[in-house]
Amino acid sequence: KSYSIALIPGDGIGRDVTAAAWSVLETAAKHAGFALTATEFPWSCKFYKETGRMMPEDGIETLRGFDAILFGAVGWPAEVPDSVSLHGLLLPIRKAFVQYANIRPHRLLPGVTGPLRAESFDILCIRENTEGEYSGAGGRVHQDTLDEVAVETSIFTRAGVERILRFGFEQARARRGKLASVTKSNAQKYSMVFWDEITRELAAEYPDVTVTSYHVDALAARMIMAPDSLDVVVASNLFGDILTDIGAAIQGGLGYAASANINPGRSAPSMFEPVHGSAPDIAHLGIANPIATIWSGAMMLDHLGETAAAGRVMKALEATTARGIGTGPGKDRTDAITAAVVAALS
Ligand code: NAI
Ligand code: MG
To answer: Which residues are catalytic?
Structure first.
């Protein structure tokens, strides 16, 4: 069996961490008796400076035939605005391939210490990935006058809200049976009340799942004060974006935060990437932590149906951090951490 993977390293440390993850994934595949082939694409801010685009015009069509996409990070050099790199590459891929569920697991790997006293949390954040506050609908009028107005409209569709909540219920059912649905329905009286209503409608179909609706501010506090009270958290695009940075912080930092952009219907490839960016401050120093990307790679294997190999990669990661390797920022070099994980696989 063989899987074709589109590899988009991007900029800065994106290059280091995807190379690291790839060597781990190749080793895992070899042990498990399947093949992974990589086709690398240079789409990045560097590519933008050369061509005026983050990816070629037919970029989406090029990616469509792959089994999955492994992505590093974009955003560097500084003269390419972050809104260009995001709207020119990542967001179009998520939208075009209907990767509506952005999954981010938050738990402490053995030996990694976070800022909290609680060590026994295991939260799966599910962020809506295609609409909501990041729909890009809006505009500005009376620019550069005292009457200037900027409008940015959130778009929530019944189909979009229902499918992400349903995905959340299914994940909760497969885990500890608890779902936290996140809104701000006291202040946002249309979209968030709508979200709460659909949550209640679906709850009737999942009597085995305990669902609780939280306001986003209260849930942000709960993630810090009582993270062990949470199982699956489902939130809109913006709220999920913010909450998962809290999740990354409590699991020890961005070096550990993995993510998957999933197309649950499998009509197009899903994309796997670390939560972090291109980290220009440490690019080329060889000290980027590859664990977030290796973990994302394990999620890719799982999505491809190679669950045993995915489990072995996670075990190897845990064995590595349990030995104190890769457990602090800049403590171990990228290649040393990678070599330890590869060795733990054998
Ligand atoms: P960042 O995630 O690149 O870095 C934030 C801080 O965390 C930095 O101090 C960095 O050194 C550290 N850090 C991040 N990943 C690390 C790792 N694997 N190991 C060790 N330390 C790590 O976020 P920042 O600085 O806000 O953005 C830098 C650039 O990345 C910007 O251009 C931004 O737009 C872009 N970006 C791209 C993303 C993507 O491609 N998905 C996501 C977030 C930011
Ligand atoms: Mg974010």
So the answer is: 134, 184, 217, 241, 245
Is residue 217 over pLDDT 90? yes
Q: 298 C-alpha vs ligand 1 centroid, how far in Å?
A: 21
**Nearest ligand to the CA atom of 292:** 1
Measured in angstroms, how far is the CA atom of residue 336 from the centroid of ligand 2? 27
Q: Of the candidates 202, 230, 248, which is a domain's last residue? A: 248
Asked whether residue 267 falls in the same domain as residue 310, the answer is: yes
Q: Say whether pTM exceeds 0.90.
A: yes
Containing structural domain, residue 142: 115-248
The atom of ligand 1 lying closest to the CA of 273 is 41
Domain count, the chain: 2
Domain boundary residue, one of 201, 220, 248 = 248
Nearest atom in ligand 1 to 78's CA: 32
pLDDT digits (tens, 9 = 90+) for 114-124: 999 877 899 99
Among candidate residues 214, 220, 234, 267, the one with its CA nearest the CA of residue 164? 234
Q: How far is the CA of 11 from the centre of ligand 1 (A)?
A: 10
Q: What is the CATH number of the domain that holds 47?
A: 3.40.718.10
